[in-house]
Amino acid sequence: MITVLLEPERRQLHYPKLNTVLQLLHELKLGQTDVLVIRDKELLTQDRSLAPGDTITVRRVTSRG
Amino acid sequence: MKCRKCKAQAAVALPSHNTAFCPDCYLLFFRSQVERTLHKQRMAKAGSPILVALSGGKDSLALALQLHELGYAVHGLHVDLAIPDYSALAKQFCEKFCSTINVPLTIIELREEGLAIPLIKSRIKRPICSVCGKLKRYFFNKFAVENNFPVLATGHNLDDEVSRLFANTIRWDASYLSDQGPVLPAEAGFARKIKPLYRLSEFEIANFCFLKNLEHVTAACPYSPKASFPVYKSLWNKLEERMPGAKIQFYENFLRDGRPVFAAWAEQQTDLEPCPGCGYPTSSGLCGVCRIRKMVGAGVNGPGVSDLDSKQAG
Ligand code: SF4
Ligand SMILES: [Zn+2]
Ligand SMILES: [Zn+2]
């Protein structure tokens, strides 16, 4: 299971299986430059693989206000 | 993906530049982008004082940090809008940031001017964001001029600039199209204004903030609109995905080929004169801010009310 934390909404999602960051972005219907994808304080490019047990933060880059 | 420069594992991929960087090389890339823009657009002399408008958000803090690291004498200026659940936080981030890197910070309290945003919102029908933007520009400019800063810098990024240009183009707003750009020269009553991040996208700035551990306000202003800018931004992001480099091309080609035409037109329009209430340059009669003061009963000593807005964009 992969846990995904969406920011700034602070919403949590769970995926039984995802192979790469690119797949995750497709699932979330997000473009490559819409968000930062973070695992253990490290930024991930879209070709990086994900593994069961990963917790991934997906942080939107658009500023409001 | 590997870093283009050192072949280490990449952390940031930039489709519009068709490249990727590791954390260290990315920060060098970012720094050199800002340095090049400052230099190429002759924005400010090396080491000179720069007044930086700070909102507490990622763009303005990233700008201040990068200018500071490039050796400019940064002075922060924050306008406290007095918006509940938002302004106090934004101010705290500015204070913490400036004390961490040890640069001076001036805070202008709109409440003390009788112009707290919630008060204005309750008294004036116009969209609050246009009034709020006008007030911020007014006080940033006023402070820069009165304190003889050679230049006022704002954190506008490529996405801000492109969506604003797009909005102005959709309306064919000749007045705004005549003076939108990364450098606005000093004119009678107006400080010189620069946007050193205008070639960097929100994504690029967000990566910089993350890698620099830069804390900034993430809460949205409660009055933040569901307005046209976010729509344009997402349209442009879709376009950029299919045509990497489209944003920068649209903007730079405008600066080169479009703006001069509108600027020539604007030359023939009415001149600006000092506002009778406060001396701010305006196209006729009381300036926009003095009219707002009058409407909320904050008191000015000028005569009649005019319909024309002072047209400074920013
Ligand atoms: S969202 Fe509107 S009211 Fe809130 S800070 Fe921005 S411009 Fe001002
Ligand atoms: Zn590298
Ligand atoms: Zn005035």
Largest sheet of chain A: 5 strands, mixed
How would you classify the helix and strand content of chain A by structural class? mainly beta
**Structure summary, number of beta strands of chain B:** 10
Could you say which small molecules are bound to this protein? iron/sulfur cluster, zinc ion
Return the average pLDDT of chain B rounded to an integer.
Answer: 90
Task: State the low-pLDDT regions of chain B, or none.
Answer: 302-314
Please give the number of β-strands of chain A.
Answer: 5
Query: Can you give the mean pLDDT of chain A?
Result: 92
Question: If you had to describe this structure to a student in words, what would you say it looks like?
Answer:
The complex is a heterodimer of chains A (65) and B (314). With 65 residues, chain A is mainly β. Chain A has one domain: Beta-grasp domain (Ubiquitin-like (UB roll)). Chain A is built from 1 helix and 5 strands, in the order ββαβββ. In chain A, strands 2-1-5-3-4 form a 5-stranded mixed β-sheet, with no helix packed on it. In chain A, a hairpin with a 2-residue loop joins strand 3 and strand 4. Chain A starts with a strand and ends in a 5-residue tail after the last strand. The mean pLDDT of chain A is 92. Chain B has one domain: 3-Layer(aba) Sandwich (Rossmann fold), CATH 3.40.50. Helix content of chain B is 46%, strand content 11%. Chain B has 11 helices and 10 strands. In chain B, strands 5-4-3-6-8-7 form a 6-stranded mixed β-sheet, with helices on both faces. A two-stranded antiparallel sheet of chain B has the order 1-2. In chain B, helix 1 packs across helix 8 and helix 6 crosses helix 9. The radius of gyration of chain B is 20 Å and the shape is globular. The two termini of chain B are 38 Å apart. Chains A and B meet through strand 4 of A and helix 8 and helix 9 of B. The site of one zinc ion has 8 residues of chain B, from helix 1.
